[in-house]
Each structure stands twice: as structure tokens, then as C-alpha cells.
Amino acid sequence: MIFPAAPGPARATGRPGERREAAVLHQIDHVGIACYDLEAAIARYESVFDLTVASRERHEDQGVREAMLRVGEGPAGASWIQLLEPIGPDTPVGKFLARRGEGIHHVGYRVTNITAALEAIGARGVRLLDQRPRHGSMGASIAFLHPADMGRVLTELVEPPET
Description:
Elements lengths: L26 E8 L3 H12 L3 E7 L4 E11 L2 E10 L5 H9 L2 E8 L3 H10 L10 E2 L5 E5 L9 E5 L4
Parallel strand pairs: 1-4, 5-8
Antiparallel strand pairs: 1-5, 2-3, 3-4, 6-7, 7-8
């Protein structure tokens, strides 16, 4: 499926070497990784990459315990690894692990206005798993896009809290 360019300022033509700014997404916010054992996954990322946990949360509504590990700083802010352990087998991450085992669960992209991003993406024919933003990690507003419309990739939009 080819999406039309978003309305707004003139866009690059796509010539090699020409810079083009994304109209909706600003950077990769995080990569969500499903794991069986959160503590073991944290230890692996700390020992292999020298990362440290910046935040731990339990999201009953999403059925996960999570840890956010800061990777680095980009033009729009930090990027993260999000380690996800299911609270139970009947949760989305629990079902993912049963089907596929440990690995990349989703990719989260930073947006500046999640409501506008949902409206624009929905108008382009992508099914929204979340019609409205909901509470996410570290106070962010989040929403998910249907993986069938995104090349089988569960895609999360993330609007960080204002600082």
C-alpha cells in the first residue's frame, strides 16, 4: 500500500542523497522486546551493552511488567529498549511468547501530537488498535497500529510527557 504525502510544506522528491523529513514520525522511541524473565533480560542488557534501568513499571491494563533501558540521545530525545514480561499467559505479551518465543514484540515511534498522528494515519487507511491515546511508560501517551496494515509489525506511537 502506498500512502500519499501528508499535507504541509514541500517535500523532497526522493532523489538519492536528498534529505526528507518525516511528517508524522520523528524518531524511533524504543524497541519492545518480549521476555520470559524480566530480571534475566535486564541482567543480559546490562552486562552486554552496559545499559542501566531508568524505569520499572507494572501495567495491569496491558498485562506486563517492564523495564526501560536508555540507549542514547537523539535529536528528539532519548531512545530506549523496553523489556516486557507478561503478568500471565493470557495477556498479549504472554500469547506472543507462547506463539513466537522471546524477541522483538513491537517498535515504538516518537510523535509530537499523538491525536493528530492517529487522525492522519487512520485517514490513510491504517487500522488503529487504539482509537484514542492511553497511558504508557514513563508518563507517555501511546497508541498501537494494527500489525496487518504495517507489514506484520506491531507499531506503537509514543508522545512523551511534556518536560
